[in-house]
């Protein structure tokens, strides 16, 4: 068979020719969105590559960063940079400024392509970016703050204008780096994940398989998930493979504009994290609109509350759960119920799982003793995955070498996801906890999340966070911290009895603490690190039952 | 990213676990077909591999041949042989006996797995098979003829019984040979095409993409196309990737049983060459049955007559054209109309083309002067293709080295398909002729098939074959040989005038010959070699207009 490398330039060329009339639609906030055909994107991508090489001197393996919303120009950068042999580094505009500076310096970005609307974020950082030589500005936004900055400044449209609209893309090694993305890293420095041409190509094929996303050129995908976040879940690449139209919200991510673009452009698919859909649901409740075009809504990044799924069902929007992470490109699972369950009472139970693995992802659960757990829907373990679009290492340690920390990669090279859960006999994953939060008690695992959910089902419990604390006899035991409603009458014994009906007896916490509020991270998740530290420092008033 | 090789064993493992309850249904001619779950196929595949290695001594790279119908055991061989590192050689039971002997010796098959019902075909050949050490017999059929044959004889079920039902499949190089298939070769010896694990894996992913076949575990695929023919168009591999149920007709390929299995098992997809569907249509006309479950019928191997497509439309069966060849694994094109054409008058015009190329197949047309032709729907050229599941060479010349004949592979490694046609601006291929039959006249090409179709549209013309003959001025010119109906009054001048309204003037033949019948090949195609020879030998009575 021919030894044809799997390259991003092949995806681009295919989309721009075979599906030349498909469109990238960018929302502008005006009456009519901006429309650009795949053929035009193909031409402008070639122009951008010529500009980067001939005008900006970008060489193989140089990092070209983007600080951009989801829009047509960002799609052009997605294809131009890797196709010419350089590496696309998508900067996460939600990162704290000091982390943005850290990752841009760590990646040694030579060029940053930035949306005009994001200059207020970028300009103050420029003095701290040690390797950036060029800033390319695209789209609306005041440029005045750029006066006197150190890097050379270019206007995107002027830079690419008049250059050749085709390109003889180089035949690269398919294992060469194509793109990189840093994990947000709640602990320690952000970690860089490097995607190869091969991994992006195979991931795109998988996304297009009927068991995954399964769209065609009859579809339009509303990509709410940001392009700076795991390649927008691979959608820009996948869509060029099969002519799926792209609907890009640019900076208009508020529920109002989203509802408006769904009603007017009638996308058949959308992808976003649950919080976006929570907001959209509130908007649709306040101002009903027709969103029934959305036959498939991929929700990932966090579990979708079942109530939200049901609410969207009644609106004619069909939610499909997916699980993945930056290290998994991200497609790890998709919750399409088995054919036999469709239309039965079991269907919903399958839809609220994380889903089942595609052919490119192998999975195993490692139990408390390190042994592989059976797929019986009951035995819990930390999920480990393997496959051609799963990270093997993180980018560049101090000496530039790949990093394979033992808490992230198993001795035989599988990725440790840090997620704990079960897998059913037919391969459906249910995640119950984070590995760092699970309570390791006497060789068995207790899910902190299960205890929390059970506790929060009590009418007088406002919030409950359960963490592991050291225990002489069992290694670890659960500590329950509880926020009670005003005027609540329940005491810890009452809550323990309430719990006893819902979880196994050996899982019941002995240690209880009443708190005014559960400490939270910047994104609103329970900050269990803080609770564990409060306990260790004696800062909690603990009752032992 | 992890360097995980794309192996057939991964497809098997995925199907047997994630889709363990999907089924391979084999028709038996009895009231109830035989059903075997993917999980059971997985176990029996492991048992077969253990048997081949431990009992028959099959080593890496050894060729294991099959002479089998489409059935569950053939699927087991499909997975066991490549997964263990050996090479599956599917023997085409329609080949003339001397060619079967030639290919089995050329491939140096060590083992043949044969269906009992095919022993009458195999046993007489055994004395001529120089490398075959073992014959494994599966399924019903009289074994008595095997008494006294030279190779050791094994019963399939006895051979695999009691062996371990799992296997630690080796981590092979994905570019290693997995399977081979010989082209039937109308001229010269058959040519062996060798598929790699990588090519099979990528082809399977493509088959499952929504723009190609796009099925899920809710589907059942009736695989009429034989497993000895280009891996049954890749269906057994593709179905294990996504849990599609397989319906296998075994030896029951007659229209009656096919209609019966469609009505009773309600497959949603089927794949076969047009002649099968012609027969089925006649059967359904004689004895109507409900075949409306067939939402998608893939027709390839030859163009499907538009009238046949329309006839099936009215029965609720939806035909989808596909083009490919042994050298292309075979998926080369699929005729799904562009979304914008669906429901319009243009839709049918797209459906009768060969279709458009999937992301893994790059295509170009080489015109009469060797230059690449534009995709304008009018400029004709020989189709050349490139991609990771396209052959780079043929198997084993005299010294064992790969063969790259210049008439089959371009100087830069693309496959010359031998098909001539046009490609539209949106990538739809329309084939008009075979390269060897096209008439090269003064630097332009004249399609013999177009002239024939135009001539046969005349009410008094029964058959017409047009071939290229040497011409001093133009290089080549068309010679029309015509069979007229009894009592016909048309003369050549009349026919030429009739043609003039349908093709360009410079394409009109000057040379005409009346014949009693057009010579045909064993499969009923016009044998143009014979006509060209008759003309060269002066054996035709030619009128010059």
3D structure, described in words:
Two copies of one chain form a homodimer. Chain A is built from 16 helices and 26 strands. Chain A is an alpha/beta fold. Among the domains of chain A are: 363-434, Luciferase, Domain 3 (Luciferase, domain 3); 439-544, 2-Layer Sandwich (GMP Synthetase, Chain A, domain 3), CATH 3.30.300. In chain A, strands 2-1-11-10-12-13-14-15 form an eight-stranded mixed sheet, with helices on both faces. In chain A, strands 7-6-5-3-4-8-9 form a seven-stranded mixed sheet. In chain A, strands 16-20-19-18-17 form a five-stranded antiparallel sheet, covered by helices on one side. In chain A, a hairpin with a 2-residue loop joins strand 21 and strand 22 (444-446). In chain A, helix 10 crosses helix 11 (274-286). The longest helix of chain A is centred in the first third of the chain and has 17 residues, at 38-54. Chain A is globular and about 75 Å long. In chain A, 51% of the residues are buried. The model of chain A has no long low-confidence stretch (mean pLDDT 94). Chains A and B meet through helix 1, strand 9 and helix 7 of A and helix 1, strand 9 and helix 7 of B. Chains A, B: Residues 450-525 form the AMP-binding enzyme C-terminal domain.
């Amino acid at each position: 068979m021919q030894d044809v490398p799997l390259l991003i330039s092949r995806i681009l060329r295919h989309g721009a020719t075979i599906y030349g009339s498909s469109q990238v639609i960018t929302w502008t906030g005006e009456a009519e969105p901006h429309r650009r055909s795949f053929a035009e994107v193909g031409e402008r991508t070639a122009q951008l590559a010529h500009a980067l090489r001939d005008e900006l001197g970008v060489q193989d393996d140089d990092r070209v960063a983007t600080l951009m919303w989801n829009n047509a120009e960002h799609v052009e950068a997605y294809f131009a940079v890797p196709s010419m042999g350089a590496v696309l580094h998508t900067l996460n505009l939600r990162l704290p400024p000091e982390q943005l500076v850290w990752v841009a310096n760590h990646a040694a970005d030579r060029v940053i392509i930035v949306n005009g609307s994001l200059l207020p974020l970028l300009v103050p950082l420029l003095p701290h970016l040690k390797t950036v030589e060029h800033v390319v500005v695209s789209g609306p936004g005041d440029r005045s703050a750029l006066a006197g900055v150190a890097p050379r400044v270019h206007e995107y449209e002027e830079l690419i204008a008049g250059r050749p609209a085709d390109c003889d893309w180089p035949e690269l090694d398919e294992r060469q780096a194509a793109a990189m993305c840093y994990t947000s890293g709640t602990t320690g420095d952000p970690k860089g994940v490097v995607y190869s041409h091969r991994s992006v190509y195979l991931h795109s094929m998988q996304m297009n398989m009927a068991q995954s996303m399964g769209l065609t050129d009859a579809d339009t995908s509303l990509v709410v998930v940001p392009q700076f976040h795991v390649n927008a879940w691979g959608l820009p690449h996948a869509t060029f493979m099969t002519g799926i139209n792209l609907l890009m919200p640019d900076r208009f991510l508020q529920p109002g504009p989203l509802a408006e673009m769904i009603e007017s452009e009638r996308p058949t698919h959308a992808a976003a994290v649950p919080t976006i859909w929570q907001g959209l649901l509130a908007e649709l409740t306040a101002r009903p609109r027709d969103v029934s075009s959305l036959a498939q809504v991929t929700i990932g990044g966090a579990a979708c509350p079942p109530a939200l799924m049901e609410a969207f069902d009644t609106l004619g929007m069909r939610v499909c759960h997916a699980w993945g992470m930056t290290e998994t490109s991200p497609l790890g699972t998709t919750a399409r119920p088995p054919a036999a369950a469709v239309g039965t009472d079991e269907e919903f139970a399958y839809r609220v799982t994380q889903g089942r693995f595609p052919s490119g992802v192998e999975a195993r659960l490692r139990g408390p003793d390190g042994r592989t757990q059976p797929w019986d829907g009951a035995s819990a373990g930390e999920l480990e995955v393997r496959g051609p679009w799963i990270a093997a290492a993180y980018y560049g340690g101090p000496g530039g070498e790949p990093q394979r920390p033992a808490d992230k990669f198993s001795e035989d090279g599988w990725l440790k996801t840090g997620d704990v859960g079960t897998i059913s006999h037919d391969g459906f994953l249910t995640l119950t906890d984070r590995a760092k939060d699970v309570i390791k008690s006497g060789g068995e695992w207790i899910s902190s999340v299960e205890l929390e959910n059970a506790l929060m089902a009590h009418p007088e419990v406002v919030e409950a966070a359960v963490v592991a604390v050291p225990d002489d006899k069992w290694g670890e035991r659960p500590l329950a911290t509880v926020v009670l409603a005003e005027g609540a009458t329940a005491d810890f014994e009452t809550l323990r009895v309430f719990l006893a009906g819902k979880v196994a007896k050996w899982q019941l916490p002995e240690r209880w603490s009443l708190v005014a509020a559960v400490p939270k991270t910047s994104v609103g998740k329970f900050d269990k690190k803080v609770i564990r530290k409060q306990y260790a420092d004696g800062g909690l008033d603990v009752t032992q039952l």
